[in-house]
Design a protein that fits this description.
The complex is a heterotrimer of chains A (282), B (150) and C (770).
Chain A: H1 12-29, H2 37-57, H3 64-86, H4 90-110, H5 114-139, H6 154-173, H7 201-211, H8 227-238, H9 240-281
Chain B: H1 3-30, H2 34-59, H3 63-93
Helix pairs in contact in B: 1-2, 2-3
Chain C: H1 6-31, H2 36-61, E1 77-91, H3 106-111, E2 116-126, H4 128-151, H5 158-177, H6 181-199, H7 206-237, E3 245-246, E4 252-253, H8 259-263, H9 271-289, H10 297-300, H11 306-315, H12 320-327, H13 329-333, H14 336-357, H15 363-382, H16 387-417, H17 435-449, H18 455-471, H19 477-484, H20 487-502, H21 514-543, E5 548-549, E6 581-582, H22 593-616, H23 618-623, H24 632-635, H25 645-666, H26 673-680, H27 682-688, H28 693-739, H29 746-768
Antiparallel strand pairs in C: 1-2, 3-4, 5-6
Classes of the chains: A mainly alpha (282), B mainly alpha (150), C mainly alpha (770).
């Protein structure tokens, strides 16, 4: 694809138009008790228009294949995200969220985060989302509850979100080609290609060198073979304490959840029994 | 891959992350169902994750990845504990409405109540009944086989 | 005991009562029934010291020689304690005023050498006038304090009373000892405040509170005059000190009554400015000494306890006006018109007060009007402007202090025994049951009426002599001719005439004619007769006739009633029906010894001091050494001391006529109301209503001021408070508006936070663009 003659992302009117369109579409789409289908169609159209603006403003990547893949997964993510927040039924919202997670996992994979892409699916979609669905099963009334059909301050919220999006896009568009090296580590732009995969015996040496502060990390390439191994080496090398702390946090959350539930049950039982006793005595 | 080429990828990925984050923000501010609010919060975290991984790839650093792993961990813990609280809240008020909790308001300000909404005709659910074995249950053509509204 | 210097002793005289007052305030509760001890100790110490100072000053003055001796040189001692305030480069006196330094050249004026500094030294002075006044104040104060231990015995405010009495003695001592007009003003106000507190001692009684307020406000009018006079004095003389002071660069600053200025023939301002100063001083003196038209507070002041009346409104505070004018004698001598006004005011007041006093039924009111009348006598004498006039006024002040205090204390003794009743129509014939009180009261009345040889006779005779000398100068001309042969007197007389001619531009001087003085003389003579009349009317009504005692009086026959309420039995009620029972002649209603002892002590000088001082001519010789009275304008009018037989006869005749008429009307009879009314006819109403001064003042002054106060109160309540409340209501209103956003819906709070953060982010992005 030929690059566009102008710089869309930094172009003011396009960005402003995208922001306005986003705000208007979300405002129309969010549940507001009126439920007219014309509003929903208009909102959808405006949303698609905003999406088109963002696509136009996007940068051109290396090849058509890369562009297409990235476009598809990001579209899935974004459209599903929008559908999540405008669905009236919370169950549908959860399912749309599952699709969003799929899209996000795709984006992560395109960016080369193999482990994280899969972890997103497994942990989020597999565990957390299921938990949400369980709660919905327990607590959601049949049919559309009245509080699912109205929103809090849709106009202001949509405007705020859209403005935030506009500002962030503006800042992203201004990123220039020579950023400062992050955290004292020189960015290995000219890192060795993926063909330079050291044998597994070098993994330990690499992880130790990685564990030693501020050593040069090899490039993160989607097709690198020992991506997870190197990630693991990084994690348990440099960030060992944090990992252990995260483990303790998980344990604490687990115990805490159980404790709260049990206390709540005990309180309910205590509240139930005297009233049961009183009603029996009457 | 040199930086000249990965900058567009960075920018695109950051844009995606920004969009997810903003949508999640709007969702939290707007929706009244507690579960949908938490879904939107998780969506914000997804946007953050995408941004972090994008930066990490651009710099060729593992830092972003590591942070995303921790974000994942903390999100899991938070979801667990938060859902417990949502259930507690539900058991007190009987509904998953964030507007059910208004006791932080000023004493002189009245309680915010919803306007009357136009009703949605809901067909009362008709659950299938079991007939004794041996007899084919009579199928009712008018009766829907499953719930239309969830 | 080491030698105390006179300046230390002088400081002790006000200091000891002040310490006594402070100790009474601090320890009054603990001391309880002995709360009088610090005050009495302080006043007694001050009295002893004052007598010592009197003796020392008398020694300095020297014995009296014959009339042809050299002029008496002034005696004064100044003790400067500290400098209260100093203002460098305060002002530059206008050229030509007495304050300006005539030796300054124009170059000095351009260089600013005429700019003076103004300082207020706290300086006390001791001269014959001050010594006399201090003795009177402290001795009478001591006797009144001793009396009060008996009179105020059961009163719950016992410590407060003694603290106030001691505070008053301190203030009055400082007033007469201060050597600076500003200090005089300060203590002028202080004695006014003490008077207010003592009149309103029983402040829960509305009449007492009202009377105290009235006294203070009427005095305030006089104080205003004093303040303006002080300003004018400073403008004219550049200093407020009485004595000469030396500035740090060695220049002598002549005080207003300092010896450099007194010796200067043109030292005093005459003309309109001088007359204005003198009339303002007269206004102040009228306020404090209850002269027309500011006399209305003194009769109402009888609501206070009787010892307070005796001390303040008879003997000491009301004499502050006399003191002020005597001290300012050189100022007045430069404005003869003002002097005449003083005499006119005095004589008129004397006559009017005497007329009102003839129809009063309240014993204390009679004495109050008699005080006003006698003070009028003193003013009349002061206004003659001669040395005899000034010394006669002080002589009368001295004797008046003795016998009026005696009379008031006696009235208090009667009131105390009669259970708070002081209406003379409700009791009678008390000489049988209160012998000591009756005897001393009789002595005092005789002194007041001017019966020879009691004290009042001589002092009144001197006053009449002073008036007579101004009214018929030819009769005294031979004395002046004899005096003119002396050189120093001649020179002094020329100086006096020079200052007289300087002040003749003012129209008031036209009053200074013998005809005016003749009228004043006859007025004074008639007043003498009236004085005798109402005094003995009171004596006969109270002490003669059948013995009647009102109910509630406590005699010693059947024990003491406690808790007699002085305030509840105000004797104004015209209930003639409530007459009371005929007292048992065997019962004694006499007061305890703490009350009768001061009566007896005061009776002695009331009887003897007149004869003593007159025969030796000691007092006038002593007083003539006061610096103010050594001014040539005053000292040149000195006449030889002689006994004017014709005047004595006239005075005694007037007194005798008065006593006889009183006897005809009231000796041995009962209530006399119908007889007086029949006799006086419509005049009775006029006198009984006090010449309608109070209603006139009420309509002219009090009601408009009350209206103004009401307007001010309304303005304060609705406008000022309204504005303040409106301003106070703004945050409340704003809060009410903002409070509505606290809905309890957390998402709205979050939205507000997000919008705030967005604003910051947008701002940052805007700053960082490009």
């Amino acid at each position: 694809m030929t690059p566009l003659p102008f710089d869309p992302l930094a172009s003011g009117p396009l960005l402003a138009g995208a922001v306005v369109a986003t705000a208007a579409s979300l405002w129309l789409l969010l549940p507001n008790g009126r439920d007219t289908s014309s509003a929903r169609w208009l909102g959808t159209l405006l949303g698609l228009g905003a999406l088109a603006a963002f696509i136009l403003a996007g940068r051109r990547l290396g090849g058509v294949g890369e562009e297409a893949v990235f476009l598809i997964v990001s579209l899935v993510a974004v459209v599903s995200a929008a559908a999540t927040i405008v669905s009236r039924s919370p169950v549908y919202a959860a399912i749309w969220f599952a699709l969003t997670l799929a899209g996000v996992a795709g984006v992560l994979l395109v960016l080369g985060a193999q482990f994280l892409g899969v972890a997103t699916i497994v942990v989020y979609a597999g565990a957390i989302l299921v938990m949400f669905l369980f709660v919905l099963m327990l607590a959601q009334p049949a049919g559309l509850a009245p509080y699912d059909r109205v929103s809090n301050e849709p106009f202001l919220s949509a405007l705020a979100g859209a403005v935030l999006l506009g500002v962030l896009s503006l800042s992203i568009g201004r990123l220039s080609a020579a950023p400062a090296p992050c955290c004292g580590v020189p960015s290995r732009a000219t890192a060795t290609p993926t063909a330079e995969t050291p044998p597994s015996s070098d993994i330990a040496s690499e992880s130790t060198t990685a564990a030693v502060a501020n050593s040069v990390a090899p490039a993160i390439d989607p097709l690198a073979e020992n991506h997870v191994a190197r990630l693991g080496g990084e994690l348990f090398g440099r960030h060992l304490v944090a990992v252990e702390a995260a483990g303790v946090l998980l344990l604490a959350a687990l115990i805490g959840a159980i404790a709260v539930v049990s206390r709540g049950e005990a309180a309910q039982a205590a509240a139930a029994s005297p009233s049961a006793g009183r009603s029996a005595a009457r | 891959m040199n930086t000249m080429q990965s900058l567009p990828l960075l920018q695109n990925a950051l844009t995606v992350g920004a969009i997810l984050f903003s949508l999640g923000l709007i969702g939290i501010l707007t929706r009244r169902n507690l579960i949908v609010m938490f879904l939107a919060a998780e969506m914000m975290l997804q946007g953050i994750s995408v941004s972090l991984v994008a930066w990490s790839r651009y710099h060729g650093d593992w830092g972003g990845h590591v942070l995303v792993i921790f974000v994942l961990t903390v999100a899991a813990c938070e979801a667990a504990v938060a859902l417990v609280f949502v259930l507690q809240a539900f058991s007190r008020t009987g509904r998953l409405d964030s507007a059910a909790w208004q006791s932080l308001r000023e004493a002189t300000v009245g309680r915010t109540v919803d306007h009357e909404l136009p009703s949605i005709d809901t067909v009362p659910p008709r659950f299938p009944t079991l007939t004794p074995a041996g007899i084919l249950p009579a199928a009712d053509e008018d009766e829907p086989l499953q719930r239309e509204h969830v | 005991m080491q030698e105390f210097s006179p300046s230390t002793l002088l400081v002790l005289v006000p200091l000891l009562p002040l310490v006594g007052a402070i100790l009474t305030v601090l320890l009054g509760r603990q001391l309880g029934a002995k709360a009088h001890l610090p005050a009495i100790a302080g006043i007694a110490g001050a009295a002893a010291v004052a007598v010592m100072l009197l003796a020392a000053t008398a020694r300095d003055v020297g014995p009296a020689h014959g009339v042809h001796a050299e002029p008496v040189r002034p005696v004064e001692m100044i003790a400067t304690l500290w400098n209260w305030a100093t203002f460098d480069s305060a002002y530059a006196p206008p050229a030509g005023s007495p304050a300006a330094d005539p030796h300054l050249t124009p170059q000095d004026l351009a260089a600013g050498k005429d700019i003076r500094s103004f300082s207020i030294p706290v300086a006390l002075r001791l001269d014959p006038l001050t010594a006399t006044m201090l003795t009177i104040i402290t001795c009478v104060g001591l006797l009144v304090a001793i009396y009060s231990t008996g009179y105020m015995h059961d009163d719950p405010g016992y410590p407060r009373f003694f603290a106030l009495v001691a505070m008053f003695v301190f203030s009055m001592s400082m007033l007469v000892a201060a050597s600076n007009f500003l200090l005089v003003y300060v203590f002028w106000e202080a004695v006014g405040a003490c008077s207010y507190l003592l009149i309103g001692f029983w402040f829960t009684k509305p009449e007492a509170a009202r009377a105290a307020k009235k006294a203070f406000l009427v005095n305030r009018v006089g104080d205003f005059g004093l303040a303006i006079a002080v300003f004018l004095l400073w403008m004219s003389y550049g200093t407020l000190d009485f004595h000469d002071t030396i500035s740090p660069d060695g220049v002598i600053m002549p005080g207003i009554f300092g010896q450099t200025r007194l010796a200067d023939a043109a030292g005093y301002v005459g003309g309109i400015l001088g007359t204005a100063i003198c009339l303002l001083l007269l206004l102040a003196a009228c306020g404090k000494s209850a002269q027309l038209p500011l006399h209305v507070w003194l009769p109402d002041a009888m609501e206070g306890p009787t010892p307070a009346s005796a001390l303040i409104h008879a003997a000491t505070m009301v004499t502050a006006g006399i003191y002020l004018i005597t001290r300012s004698a050189p100022l007045f001598a430069a404005c003869p018109g003002a002097l005449t006004v003083v005499s006119i005011v005095g004589a008129t007041t004397a006559l009017v007060a005497a007329l009102i006093g003839t129809v009063q039924n309240d014993l204390k009111r009679v004495l109050a009007y008699s005080t006003i009348s006698q003070l009028g006598y003193m003013f009349a004498s002061l206004g003659t402007g001669t040395l005899l006039g000034f010394t006669a006024a002080i002589f009368h002040l001295l004797t008046h202090a003795c016998f009026k205090a005696l009379l008031f204390l006696g009235a208090g003794s009667v009131m105390h025994s009669m259970g708070g009743v002081i209406d003379m129509r409700r009791f009678g014939g008390l000489r049988r049951v209160m012998p000591i009180t009756a005897a001393t009261f009789l002595v005092g009345s005789a002194a007041l009426a001017g019966v020879a040889p009691f004290a009042g006779f001589f002092s009144k005779d001197e006053i009449l002599a002073a008036l007579h000398a101004k009214a018929w100068p030819a009769a005294h001309g031979d004395h002046h001719a004899a005096a003119a042969a002396d050189g120093p007197f001649q020179l002094a007389r020329f100086a006096a005439e020079a200052s007289h001619s300087a002040g003749s531009a003012v129209g008031l001087d036209a009053l200074d004619r013998p005809e005016t003085w003749q009228i004043l003389f006859w007025m004074s003579l008639i007043t003498a007769g009236l004085t005798a009349f109402y005094t003995f009317r009171a004596v006969f009504m109270t002490f003669t006739g059948p013995t009647r005692v009102p109910e509630g009086a406590h005699g010693h026959g059947h024990g003491h009633d406690d808790g007699h309420g002085h305030d509840s039995h105000a004797g104004h009620a015209a209930d003639a029906g409530h007459v009371g029972h005929a007292g048992n002649a065997h019962e004694s209603y006499e007061s305890p010894w703490t009350m009768t002892l001061p009566l007896v002590i005061l009776a002695v000088p009331s009887a003897l001091v007149g004869w003593l001082l007159f025969s030796t001519n000691w007092l006038s010789h002593f007083l003539s050494a006061t610096p103010s009275l050594t001014a040539p304008a005053v000292a040149s009018t000195a006449t030889p001391h002689m006994f004017h037989m014709n005047l004595a006869i006239q005075g005694t005749l007037a007194a005798a006529i008065g006593i006889v008429i009183a006897a005809i009307g009231h000796l041995g009879r009962r209530s006399d109301g119908p007889q007086m009314e029949r006799f006086l006819g419509p005049l009775q109403t006029l006198f009984a209503n006090k010449f309608y001064f109070d209603p006139i003042y009420s309509a002219l002054v009090v009601r408009p001021l009350e209206g103004l106060a009401l307007v001010a109160a309304m303005f304060d309540r609705y406008v000022v408070d309204g504005i303040v409340d409106a301003i106070a209501g703004i945050p409340v209103a704003l809060g009410g508006i903002v409070r509505r956003s606290q809905s309890g819906l957390l998402q709205r709070y979050a939205l507000a936070g997000v919008m705030g953060v967005l604003a910051i982010v947008v701002l940052l992005a805007w700053q960082l663009r490009g």
